[in-house]
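Co-fold these.
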Amino acid sequence: MEGCMFCKILKREIPATIVYEDEISLAFRDISPKAPTHILVIPKKHIRTVVEVKEEDNSLLGHLIYVANGIAKKEGISEKGFRLVINCGLESGQSVWHIHIHLLGGRKMTWPPG
Amino acid sequence: MEGCMFCKILKREIPATIVYEDEISLAFRDISPKAPTHILVIPKKHIRTVVEVKEEDNSLLGHLIYVANGIAKKEGISEKGFRLVINCGLESGQSVWHIHIHLLGGRKMTWPPG
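Predicted complex below.
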């Protein structure tokens, strides 16, 4: 999608520290990390928000979480713990309109989650 | 699973304000809400953490997010926005060892997410 920052990262038009890629997803480090590990996992398909995910794409979202799991393992935070966050819409603070899962870990997370 | 609080809610052995149920998931209000809407969506299958989800269960996690989406719509927070949070492991603050997705909305969420 033209103008989408994450689509530009996918096309390597904007640099990013990519940590994982497969046919349907890409993962890269957040440019403004809020934890020692802070990685974004995105689908290659441009979908604006979680609200726009159709039922037939359920396995797509599941795959993104599966990928986040694998990255957590590689980052050495799988056993200690990590938090997954998906922002959807303005009040949540979503700022890039291409679905992304935040994977945060490497420190104790606090509650409430924002 | 014996001793699991969420399995007890599933079996109606512990009361909860249930807002949604289908064959594979249940959703109920968090007993200690951190936002005007704070609902937990859980699978009926007892899985301790996201780390233990196998690849063939990808659609299960996707379904939980799909259910959260539908609830957000019913709660009237779908357009304004909401945050989904999954805690996995001790450092994330996971306290009940049965997978659950937090759906939070009805107020502006802050950053970082805990």
